[in-house]
Each structure stands twice: as C-alpha cells, then as structure tokens.
Design goal:
The chain has helices spanning 58-65, 89-102, 115-126, 150-163, 168-172, 178-191, 204-219, 246-254, 270-273, 275-287, and strands spanning 2-3, 21-25, 28-35, 43-46, 70-73, 108-113, 131-137, 232-237, 259-263. Helix 1 (58-65) links the parallel strand 4 and strand 5 (70-73). It is α/β, with parallel strands linked by helices and 288 residues long. This is Alpha/beta hydrolase.
Length: 288
C-alpha cells in the first residue's frame, strides 16, 4: 500500500476547498477528499448512483465537517478511482472496506445516500465491528419492493432532462412542482460551487454496471436487518420515485431502535431539499 496522505496543521472547513488525494490498495488507486478536524471516529460518505466526489451537497457535508473528520471517496472504477466497477453491491462494499482500511481506520460512522446506503448495509452485514453509526438516506433494503424498477425510472428521467437541457438530478431527486423545481435548481447550483480540481466524470459503462447491481440488489433475497445493532438514522422524502419511500419505512421497522424522518412534498433528494432541517438532526445523531 502507498499513499500521498499527509498530516496537515491547517484544517479544511469547506468541501469545495478539500484537495483531492489518493491512496493505493490492492492495485486500485482510490480518489478521496477529507475535511474537518482530525482525530476521533471519521464519518465516511458513501455516494449515489453515477456520482463522483463532486456530487456531495456542501450544505450537508460542511456542517458535519465542522464537528467531525469527514472523508468522501470514489469507489473502484468511479470518477478518478481506477479499476472496474463491481457488478454487485456486496463487491462494492468489499472495495469500500479496502479503501477504509488503507487509510488506517478501524472504526467509522457512515453517511450514505441511495446506492451508497445499499453498499453501507452490505458492508455492515459483513464487517459489523467496523461501523459505529449509520445514516441511511434515500435508500432501501435488499429485495425491497419495486427496487428493481430504478433502471426504468432513471432512463426515463435522463431522457426528460435531456429534452429540457436540465441536469437529470433535477428530475430524479426532486418533485416536478414549483417547490421541487426550485429546490432542484438550487441543489445543482450548489454542486457547482467547487470550481477547481473537479473530479473525473463517471463513465457510461460504470453507470450501467452500477444500475445493474442495484437491480440485482432489488431482486435478491431480503437480508437479516435485525443483525444491524448500530444506531441508525433513516431519512427520505415522502415521494421518492427512485427508491420508493415505503422502503425507508421498511428499513425503520426492521432495524431495531432506528430513527426515521420523512420530509413532506419531496422526493429522493429530500435531505437536500430540507438540508436546513436535516443537518441539525444528523449532526446531533452523529455527535451523541
């Protein structure tokens, strides 16, 4: 293993200023960014379908990094990370563990969104001792109802976005009413706040492989979520078209002691639309 990670006296407090670094493990170069005060248990962010390092909302990540050491990364084959995207969620979880261990972490909190939440569930099932707390947003369990329809919804919304020359996330993550359209535009604008050292775009082959992995996850046998004993915060909008909101309720029922928040008049990106309300909850949950 080699790494260009080095100690710094100055603390990066804004995600848009966090330098992109790399660590090499098992022949794969993983790209990552870190910010916030070093020390303690880090919060590792697991990103969504077809997303790279540039897809994290600074209004979510910056307030958490004000209190905690935050790490975001590109998993194998995504963005600036080398290698091929695995064909299953479980293999993605194995790669995430390889990355986490390469940075020398033996215990982490996970903040996960969408596909990232599926990877987080697979990871904690296999490596329960690695994870202290879980934040699962816009996601669902293996074998979840209608999870395998995400591909159809995704391709349809990409088409709609192309016709209107919009970012697909405006359709995929937000309701197409006045409130949702405004929230979607604001979210996309926030993602553009970082102007330097942008990540490598996600390749079409990587996107398609991830999408097939989600379909497999949706069609697989349900996992034993009662085995998740970590404190878990679950959040979503009430009208998630990608990963049906009812699956957040399913996670809540099956993960003992979990907390659930569902935001009204919002979709897959409910936590981004309601970031002002959600962030204090997440900071409090992670800080307990």
């Amino acid at each position: 293993m080699t790494t260009n990670r080095h100690a710094r006296d100055d603390i990066v407090t804004a995600y848009q200023d966090a330098p992109t670094r790399t660590v090499v493990a098992d022949g794969v170069t993983y790209a990552y960014r870190e910010l916030g005060p070093k020390g303690g248990i880090p919060v590792v962010f697991f990103v969504h379908l077809a997303a790279n390092l540039d897809n994290w909302d600074p209004r979510i990540i910056d307030p958490i990094a004000a209190h905690r050491h935050v790490v975001a990364f590109d998993n194998r084959g995504v963005g600036a990370s080398t290698g091929r995207v695995p064909g299953t969620v479980e293999a993605m979880a194995d790669d995430a563990v390889t990355f986490i261990e390469a940075l020398g972490f033996d215990e982490i909190d996970i903040f996960a969104f969408s596909l990232g939440g599926m990877v987080a569930q697979a990871l904690v099932a296999k490596h329960p001792g690695l994870v202290r707390k879980l934040v699962l947003t816009g996601t669902g369990p293996a074998g979840g109802k209608d999870m395998d329809k995400v591909a159809r919804t995704t391709y349809w919304d990409i088409l709609r976005a192309t016709v209107t020359r919009s970012d697909p996330k405006e359709f995929l993550f937000f309701n197409r009413n006045t409130t949702g359209k405004a929230a979607g535009r604001a979210f996309v604008q926030r993602l553009e706040e970082r102007t330097a050292d942008r990540d490598v775009p996600v390749k079409l082959t990587a996107f398609r492989t991830q999408l097939k992995a989600i379909q497999k996850w949706g069609r697989s046998a349900p996992g034993d979520l009662s085995a998740i004993t970590q404190p878990t915060l679950i959040a979503n909008g009430d009208n998630d078209r990608m990963v049906p909101s009812i699956l957040s309720e399913d996670l809540h029922r099956r993960i003992k002691g979990s907390e659930l928040v569902i935001y009204p008049d919002s979709g897959h990106g409910g936590i981004f639309q309601f970031h002002e309300q959600f962030v204090p909850l997440a900071v409090d949950f992670l800080g307990r």
